[in-house]
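Amino Acid Chain and Its Fold in Token Form
===========================================
What this section holds: a protein sequence and its matching fold, both as plain text.
Structure line: whole-number tokens from a learned vocabulary of local backbone shapes, matched to residues.
Purpose: to set a sequence beside its fold so the mapping can be learned.
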Amino acid sequence: MREIVFDTETTGLYANSGDRVTEIGCVEVIDFIPTGRTWHAYVNPQRSTPKEVIAITGLTDAFLSDKPLFSHVAEEFIDFVGDAGLVAHNAPFDRGFINMELERLGRPGYEEVRFKDTARMARAKFPGSYVSLDALCKRFDISLESRDKHGALVDALLLAEVYLELSGGRTRALDLSGQGVTGPGETVFPPQQARPQALSQAQTDSERAAHAAFIEELGENALWKKLAIGRE
């Protein structure tokens, strides 16, 4: 199951009232596990960004002035997504902005059925609790050291970890890796090898190196790093 965990930064809150996308970050996951492939772009919104938004994102008008227009990166984004499902935190917001930008170019938007909303998943799992990305990272002991500002790729990387936790976390990851989990100290190997293991066997040296670099970027508290250490 290939999915793209992604995040957008924008000039404001209202896709249908003149606000535009300023940054997109995407992380590819297969069966909930990041593959190491990412896609990222800053976008010139062709308008000014309010000071209160710049305080959150750090993306100034001067910084964005020489960045490509959405029309120049749209094809790369579409190609990276392919036919994958899309995962976002407060998905209606990100879907609204991506579809607005695509429709400005005469391109079809993405249907709602393709999206999973991690905020909605978290509200169902933890009724009455805060479900911001920060709050969920703290709940799952995911390091926020890399997040001094809201950035689309940084947030997508964090969200990929949150998404795995919301989908079963360590137990789910071990089960999908073909190891299986029962009681303490017990391991059951299922009769059929899981898909991520088969993909791992087919990886090239460059893909394995990219995945190793990706894990290193996530820091000491990253779940994938803990799982990798546990298998050594």
Observations:
- Residues 152-166 form the longest helix (15 residues).
- The beta strands are 2-10, 21-30, 33-42, 85-88, 115-117.
